[in-house]
Amino acid sequence: xxxxxxxxxxxxxxxxxxxxxxxxxxxxxxxxxxxxxxxxxxxxxxxxxxxxxxxxxxxxxxxxxxxxxxxxxxxxxxxxxxxxxxxxxxxxxxxxxxxxxxxxxxxxxxxxxxxxxxxxxxxxxxxxxxxxxxxxxxxxxxxxxxxxxxxxxxxxxxxxxxxxxxxxxxxxxxxxxxxxxxxxxxxxxxxxxxxxxxxxxxxxxxxxxxxxxxxxxxxxxxxxxxxxxxxxxxxxxxxxxxxxxxxxxxxxxxxxxxxxxxxxxxxxxxxxxxxxxxxxxxxxxxxxxxxxxxxxxxxxxxxxxxxxxxxxxxxxxxxx
Length: 320
Fold this sequence. Notes:
This protein is an alpha+beta fold. Helix content is 31%, strand content 31%. The protein has eight helices and 19 strands. The chain has helices at residues 48-69, 77-84, 91-106, 116-121, 134-141, 170-184, 275-288, 290-300; strands spanning 5-7, 16-22, 25-34, 37-45, 86-88, 150-152, 155-157, 190-194, 197-201, 210-215, 222-228, 232-237, 242-245, 248-251, 254-255, 260-261, 267-272, 303-310, 313-318. The strands form five sheets. Strands 2-3-4-8-9-12-17-18-19 form a nine-stranded antiparallel β-sheet, with helices on one face. A three-stranded antiparallel β-sheet has the order 1-10-11, with no helix packed on it. Helix 1 (48-69) runs antiparallel to helix 6 (170-184), helix 6 (170-184) runs antiparallel to helix 7 (275-288) and helix 7 packs antiparallel against helix 8. The longest helix has 22 residues, at 48-69. The radius of gyration is 19 Å and the shape is globular. The protein starts with a strand and ends with a strand.
């Protein structure tokens, strides 16, 4: 989802490329606001020319992915698919949709990239959030069904009343793609943050795990710090896009089974090898809530940290 992990370095919101001394190598950082949020990529390299080439390819890749999967851009490939109900796909695009389908089936349909009609019904796209009628929720639910997404050959097809939104996985997917570029150039130490989805390549330049802060879901700053090495961590929270009615918080993470926002979590943090997988799983676990969420994570052997509110107090549970 649109996200919430804060690394210990500061996020910048404009394009910047600089280097500082770090042991025998130099540290380079690429920053931008793209893929629906701020991104910061820091990596160690002894060759300034190679570092510059890496940054250029990262920038090109992120702009390309944004042109494909930006839900809010009328010029994006995704917008064309939602309008025309069919589009061409290359192998990488097909692989992403296959991953989405796998996560949907793994979670019993709780993760579903066709959930857009429900987000629209609750006003999260228009910014005019309000509780819809039961009839409006039921009508939107009938348009949500990941199983109706079809890939045949080099084309994808969706039903006439379906709308897709890859916001629950696109940033994690982008982090994985940047990780491939980093590794292709032989860079052994990097931390990639795409809108709060974090992927670590190797360890920090000091030969220790990277430290990543998890945002406090009910206050400023971080609530805890976790270590990360050659793996990913993502978080979904109920505190970024939400509205309040009669003291109850309604977040933008929707349960496709009920058509209503997930109400039993404050934040969910997931650890996995790949960022896109963690990104999709954290959304589903947020819907499941702490008890069922931990059981599910145990069943797939994935570590998670869940914060939730109980009697006005913030509680923490983890499974490993």
